Amino acid sequence: MAGLKRRVPLHSLRYFISMVGLFSKPGLLPWLADVVTPLWRLSYEEQLKVKFAAQKKILQRLESYIQMLSGVSVTTAVPKSERLSCLLHPIIPSPVINGYRNKSTFSVNRGPDGNPKTVGFYLGTWRDGNVVCVQSNHLKNIPEKHSQVAQYYEVFLRQSPLEPCLVFHEGGYWRELTVRTNSQGHTMAIITFHPQKLSQEELHVQKEIVKEFFIRGPGAACGLTSLYFQESTMTRCSHQQSPYQLLFGEPYIFEELLSLKIRISPDAFFQINTAGAEMLYRTVGELTGVNSDTILLDICCGTGVIGLSLAQHTSRVLGIELVEQAVEDARWTAAFNGITNSEFHTGQAEKILPGLLKSKEDGQSIVAVVNPARAGLHYKVIQAIRNFRAIHTLVFVSCKLHGESTRNVIELCCPPDPAKKLLGEPFVLQQAVPVDLFPHTPHCELVLLFTR
Questions:
Q1: pLDDT tens-digit map of 154-193
Q2: Which of the residues are catalytic?
Q3: Quick check: 192 and 175 in contact, CB under 8 A?
Q4: What pTM did the predictor assign?
Q5: Dihedrals phi, psi of 186, to nearest 5 degrees
Q6: When you count CB atoms within 10 A of the terminal residue's CB, does the N or C end of the chain come out lower?
Q7: CB of 302 within 8 A of CB of 321?
Q8: How far apart are CA 142 and CA 136, in angstroms?
Q9: Angle, nearest 10°, between helix axes 404-413 and 44-70?
């Protein structure tokens, strides 16, 4: 895990657990749930009230920032919603409340009994030296299938003579496990392995051993449809940095969403709540207001679902995505579903977008959709959007409207600023729609509609 600097002494773990009276693993499970899914003790109706109130506060703070830092009044003709200038819609609930995650990543570290080959989620902090790894069985958002694969991976680790890699510079090999599933029950597992100084022959042996375990050994009970293996010397490695190696099974997961068959590679981003994602993408589509004369610009498009789901209503879809595998998935999905008016570009949006927009300066209206990671959009992307006059509508999807994402919104809405190369007319925040994709957690997607 990023930031880990030293091995945690076993006596520190025991002290930490005993201090809270939770030395047994069963006693730790409710506490793990409180950390990972802190709203799980509330009814879902109560959870939605908590989340709606939180999103309202975020918007109030955001509007105050826009007014104070840029001197812009965000008053619009849209009816006010509880002291907000923008229209805040009711929160859209998730159609699935429990076991909704289609992707889970499990860590490997010391468990409550001190065994370093424990697969689960962390409790405690590295800084305080009190980290312990606890199994996921008690978490309401994790499907049983994911927990089952994690438990069998733990069985495999405990019979392997190779040690786990707890700290990169201290050796060890076996690392985290990622499990992806679809609505048809297909299951993909990805094992991350630190090769240290093993030869290719030695690596091949380990791959064959883990393959055998999940095909004909105890792990066959998981019914995996594919097993991947990635050699990684870093906390996170992309497919380009270290290719995912298919040990057996199908190379992709397929999903049905918004009347599309979607291909998902092991490295590609896809919303972790499939049923909730459909509600999210429908909301985005409604807010865009696209028509047959519109070019839809889908920035940070992932596997291209938003743009492709709206392709039949637009003149053209232009997608930009950093992950090459995801772009290949988007192109496959377009071809399989007979969509011919889309094109997808691989690379950093800040490098591709300016040139792509310049080539489209033909007076045609452009609607932009951005769905960035939590880090927000690069400043040059904001510049390109702001300075291209043909973009009159922008839909911004945020899972965490803090930090860089807040600055993104301020830069979109502030008056023209030549010093910052923000020359186009400012956008105005018109509507906001919270969409819950993460029951039992405080997180929520917030869809923002800007116009100018």
A1: 999 999 999 999 887 789 999 999 999 999 999 999 999 9
A2: 399, 445
A3: yes
A4: 0.87
A5: -70, 145
A6: N
A7: yes
A8: 7
A9: 50
